[in-house]
Fold these 2 entries.
Entry 1:
Amino acid sequence: MLKPQEAFQILQEIPVPRQKVHLPLIHCLGGILMEDLLADRDFPPFDRVMMDGIAIGNIHIKEWALEGIAFAGETQKSLSNPNGAWEIMTGSPLPKNCVAVLKIEDLDFFEKEGKKWVSSKNDTIEKGSFIHTQGSDIQQGQIILKKGTRLKANHIAIAASVGYSKLWVEKLGEIHVFSTGDELVSIEETPLDHQIRSSNSIMMQSALQHVGITSKHHHLPDDPTIILQSLKTSLSTVDILLLSGGVSAGKKDYTPGILKDLGFEAKFHKIAQKPGKPLWVGNREDGKVIFAFPGNPISTLVCFSIYFLSWIQDKKTPFPQVKIEGLQAPLANLDHWIPIQWTREHQAKVLQHNGSGDLVHWQHADALAWQKANDPNDELTYFPL
Ligand SMILES: Nc1nc2c(c(=O)[nH]1)N[C@H]1C(S)=C(S)[C@@H](COP(=O)(O)OP(=O)(O)OC[C@H]3O[C@@H](n4cnc5c(N)ncnc54)[C@H](O)[C@@H]3O)O[C@H]1N2
Ligand code: MOO
């Protein structure tokens, strides 16, 4: 049977179907930037005051006569007396003729002959202190964000600061998420004794939303005709389908057969791992891709997090390592994904649980540790959840 490492390699060869779109900035998270963004001005665009306090022109004296107050949002002021000072607020342009900023905590304000003065409590004052110099971050015309950047929230802030309200990005389109199984009822319903509430789809949809992907959910009964028709309809509009349930060896586990009938080639079905052994992944000549996750809630969670999210984010193994307390002996033929909780820096402990149907004991899991078959090591690579 295929090992997880081999499954990761196969996934790398399946192209992620992305669309080229011009989107409002608020929807660009997770997309890949298709153009270089240039700084439209120097950053910062003026000598920016970094602390609330005063700006001075002479650093060799200890007392300065105050000339006025400069707030952020006001035009640049100018110091007329070389031994004077301006009261200034963080974010305001440094007044002309000033060479240093002193913060308010280090100052005493007082009056002399009816005029306002200020003195420093510090012995030394450095030229340039608390001044964020114009163009020190980047100069006008330089590339501020490179084509190919996978956009995170910090990149969105940069795009906004150079005036892009829309960006050209390559992004995953909407994904359709299917739950399958006659035993499942919706969250709002009260299940009968033999029924359970569906939880896999909302888990995947929430995680998709977190990485900036929109999704729709459909539920499918264990009826091959309905499953086939519903998947066909979805495939006419979307590139990626995520299914849960119906992929193991049960008499109503129709999914793999139906996917074959829809023209999909199984890239793999079954990985030598626990949980999540019956994972099915395949694609079609038109570039559409389907991940069919084993229905047990933890199996779906593990396979979705480890394989699907890595695939769409081009994440490469190996993952970082952590030392783990409470590890059992490794399994003989299967790699084991083990829920762990951080105990202190670079240390984690194994969480006890009742298998891949047990969502309850996995609530404290911070990460999944990867214990390879027959590997007695207690320092393992992990995948954050
Ligand atoms: N004879 C064998 N039986 C099983 C094997 C096997 O290799 N041989 N594999 C086991 C493993 S491992 C897993 S994992 C499960 C996966 O089975 P399926 O993908 O066919 O999933 P179902 O049978 O439809 O459901 C399994 C379990 O999960 C619950 N479920 C399903 N969907 C949801 C959902 N959306 N939300 C919450 N819970 C869900 C379902 O009610 C079942 O309890 O097969 C083993 N069997
Ligand atoms: O792999 Mo199943 O996920 O053991 O329950």
Entry 2:
Amino acid sequence: MPLFTEPLLAPPPPLDIARDALFLDFDGTLVEIAPRPDAITLPPGLAARLAALEGALGGAFALVSGRNLAELVRYLDGFGGLIIGGHGAEARGLSGADTPPPEALAALQSRMSAFARAERLLYEPKAHGAALHYRSRPDFGPEVEAFIQSLLQQFSGFSVQPAKMAYELRPASASKDRALARLWDLPRFAGRRPVFLGDDTTDEPAIAWAAAQGGYGVKVGPGETAARYRLADPAAVLSWLEGGA
Ligand SMILES: O=P(O)(O)OC[C@H]1O[C@H](O[C@H]2O[C@H](CO)[C@@H](O)[C@H](O)[C@H]2O)[C@H](O)[C@@H](O)[C@@H]1O
């Protein structure tokens, strides 16, 4: 008898463009995970495809990522819609939504960068935090986590954000679900049902938020989740978005 360690979930029903509001994560959801953050390969015509989707949804669409907003804007040149970056700390298209960077940001980044150099890790500075990637040293996760936890004792205003082969520190007040709750007041979302697609731990609060508003979440890839549906990978996401799942 097979032993299932995670819920078996069906693919989502087709998107209802007249009724749904769509929120998409970036890394691992639209774009395959790569060895380094700057080594991703964008699916052909991604920005134009997102722009078309946004139009079809009457603007009820946003990209919601942990990445720096500036990077997302650069990768998606040609898509002019709503973007949430920095795990909810930054926004394009929503005035007054940006979280001020925590006061201790520069000191914190200097400690993380020095640790990365000493331990041969990849350091990723962010506008509101920073990440330590240990993909090149896959067994080193516990040490990275312990170091990140130790920083929490010394610098206030941050929360730990686990990511795929990485640990990040982000502003404690920023999260994807809180950012979505702010977006949700925009007139374009009125009367719609939120649908959130994501692949990682940072996406689970947003998945729960979508369900609490009467919508649903879709987990991309394997792993435990509160989502109602699952798609295997970014290729399956793109196919579903184009009506082919
Ligand atoms: O919220 P997301 O759009 O999913 O962003 C989460 C983090 O994604 C990036 O890191 C991850 O993807 C990299 C590229 O595939 C990969 O090399 C890394 O191991 C993953 O953790 C990004 O670098 C982070 O800033 C995002 O927070």
